[in-house]
């Protein structure tokens, strides 16, 4: 569970960050039609966003950098999000001060595994 302040997430959400729950792709079932678009990410990986073609709701994201994970926008779960407790902020380099975050939340310039804080 994480927050991401990359510029792409800011554009996709219309705010300062996205809230994401990670899951193994085999544990997620998506029914109904989705559409997707692929773009190069800052890491050099390809990032795919899937969305509902009828209403535009973001459904899932995936990165060629991490094929073992599917990224689910927490807002997709509606009011049932008490379980969401983010453990990090990634792409803090583009975080805005007006986008208030919990004190003590670990922040990484890019990705956690980059070792940059």
Shape: globular
Enumerate the strands of the largest sheet in spatial order, edge to edge or round the barrel.
6-2-1-7
Biggest beta sheet summary:
4 strands, mixed
Q: What would you give as the CATH superfamily?
A: glutathione-dependent formaldehyde- activating enzyme (gfa)
Q: What is the average of the pLDDT values?
A: 91
* Broad structural category: mainly beta
CATH domain topology: glutathione-dependent formaldehyde- activating enzyme (gfa)
**Subunit organisation of the chains:** single chain
Q: Could you describe the 3D structure shown?
A:
This protein is mostly beta strands. It has a single domain (2-114), classed as Alpha-Beta Complex (glutathione-dependent formaldehyde- activating enzyme (gfa)). Helices cover 6% and strands 28% of the residues. The chain is built from one helix and seven strands, in the order E-H-E-E-E-E-E-E. The strands form two sheets. It has a four-stranded mixed beta sheet. A hairpin with a 5-residue loop joins strand 3 and strand 4 (46-51). The radius of gyration is 14 Å and the shape is globular. It starts with a strand and ends in a 27-residue tail after the last strand. 20% of the residues are buried. The model has no long low-confidence stretch (mean pLDDT 91).
